[in-house]
Write a structure and sequence with these properties.
Residues 2-59 form the HTH lysR-type domain. Belongs to the LysR transcriptional regulatory family. The chain has 303 residues and is α/β, with parallel strands linked by helices. The chain has three domains: 4-73, Arc Repressor Mutant, subunit A; 90-161 and 270-292, D-Maltodextrin-Binding Protein, domain 2 (3-Layer(aba) Sandwich), CATH 3.40.190; 166-269, Periplasmic binding protein-like II (D-Maltodextrin-Binding Protein, domain 2, 3-Layer(aba) Sandwich), CATH 3.40.190.10. The chain has helices at residues 4-16, 19-26, 30-44, 60-88, 104-111, 130-138, 175-180, 204-213, 227-235, 248-254, 282-302, and strands at 49-52, 55-58, 92-99, 121-128, 144-147, 160-174, 193-197, 219-224, 241-244, 257-274. The strands form three sheets. A six-stranded mixed sheet has the order 4-3-5-10-6-9, with helices on both faces. Strand 1 (49-52) and strand 2 form a beta hairpin.
C-alpha cells in the first residue's frame, strides 16, 4: 500500500527543486528525506530521480508520480479547508483567476453555475495577466483560471486546459458611429475607426487575418489589453467594437449599440485551466458541465 508520508516527502523535494532546499523548508535532515524517498522507490519498484551532476532531476516516471501527488495533496488541502469552513459555518472559498482579456459578462456566464451548488461556496475572483494568474494557480492560491487560450507550452507550470466553449465574433458600434459608416457590412469597415484587443488576446490574430483576407482597411484608433476598457470606449462612441456574439444582446440593450455584422470563421474560445487532469473540484466541475449549455443558449439568442 502506498505510504503517503513518503509520497509527501517526495512531493516536497520535487517542488523545492532539491533535497537541501526541501530540508531547509521542512526542518528535516537531508538524510531523512533521502532515506524516505529511497524507501518509496524501493516499495514501488521505480526510480523517481536521477542525478545530473549535483542536481536531482525527475525521471519520466517521477514526473507522472508528481502529477498525481499534486492532485492528492491539493485535494487533501481542499478537504481540510472544507471541514474547517463547515465547522465554523463559513462557506468554502472558490478562488478564480480571470484573464483580463476575457469579457466580464462572459466570465459571469461561465462562473454562474458555481454559485448554485447544493453546498454554497464563496466565490473569490482575481483578475490580471494570464502569466501571473497561472503562477498563483501553480502554488494553489487559485482553484482555476479562466482564459481565452490554453496553458502556454513555454510556461513551467503543471496544468491542464479544459475547453468550455466558444463564441463567434460580431462588430458593434454606437448609433453615431454606425450612422457615419458607408455601405453594407463588411465593406463599411473600410476607413472605419476600429478598436482592437491587445497583443495577448488570442482572437486578435484571427481577427486581423479576416480583415486582411477581405481586403478591409479600417483605422485602428485604439488597442486594449483589458476587455472591459475596450467595451467602455466602444459604448462611448470611440470606434467599432469587435466582441463575442455571446454578449451581443447585452451590448444592444445596455450599451445602446447597433450590430453591424459578424466575422465568419473567427471565434473566441474559453478555457478553464486547472492543476487537475480530471476535474474533481465541485465548482470547477459545475462550470465545465454547464458551460456548453450556457454558451449555446447565448449563441442561439444571437441568431
Amino acid at each position: 500500500m502506498l505510504n503517503y508520508k513518503q509520497l509527501h516527502h517526495f512531493w516536497s523535494v520535487a517542488r523545492a527543486g532539491g533535497i537541501v532546499r526541501a530540508s531547509e523548508r521542512s526542518g528535516l535532515a537531508p538524510q531523512t528525506l533521502s532515506g524516505q524517498i529511497a524507501t518509496l522507490e524501493a516499495s514501488l519498484g521505480i526510480t523517481l530521480f536521477q542525478r545530473q551532476g549535483r542536481r536531482l532531476v525527475l525521471t519520466e516516471t517521477g514526473r507522472m508520480v508528481l502529477d498525481y501527488a499534486e492532485e492528492i495533496f491539493r485535494l487533501g488541502s481542499e478537504l481540510e479547508e472544507a471541514i474547517q469552513s463547515r465547522a465554523t459555518g463559513r462557506m468554502a472559498p472558490f478562488r478564480v483567476g480571470v484573464a483580463d482579456v476575457v469579457p466580464k459578462a462572459i466570465a459571469y456566464v461561465l462562473l454562474a453555475p458555481s454559485m448554485t451548488l447544493a453546498e454554497p461556496m464563496r466565490i473569490i475572483c482575481r483578475e490580471g495577466k494570464l502569466e501571473r494568474l497561472l503562477g498563483e494557480l501553480a502554488i494553489h492560491k487559485l482553484d482555476v483560471v479562466l482564459a481565452d487560450s490554453p496553458l502556454p507550452s513555454n510556461m513551467d507550470v503543471r496544468g491542464y486546459s479544459h475547453v468550455l466553449g466558444e463564441s463567434t465574433i460580431g462588430f458593434y458600434a454606437s448609433a453615431a458611429v454606425a450612422d457615419s459608416l458607408r455601405g453594407d457590412f463588411p465593406a463599411c469597415l473600410n476607413g472605419a475607426p476600429l478598436l482592437l484587443p491587445g497583443l495577448e488576446a488570442a482572437v486578435r490574430g484571427p481577427l486581423l487575418r479576416w480583415l486582411e483576407d477581405g481586403k478591409l482597411r479600417p483605422r485602428v484608433v485604439g488597442e486594449f489589453d483589458d476587455s472591459a476598457l475596450m467595451r467602455a470606449f466602444g459604448e462611448a462612441g470611440a470606434g467599432v467594437l469587435p466582441a463575442a456574439s455571446l454578449i451581443g444582446d447585452e451590448l444592444l440593450a445596455q450599451g445602446g449599440m447597433r450590430r453591424l455584422g459578424e466575422a465568419p470563421g473567427v471565434v473566441e474560445t474559453y478555457y478553464a485551466i486547472s492543476v487537475e487532469r480530471r476535474l474533481t473540484h465541485p465548482a470547477v466541475r459545475a462550470i465545465s458541465d454547464a458551460a456548453p449549455i450556457s454558451i449555446a443558449r447565448g449563441q442561439t439568442a444571437q441568431g
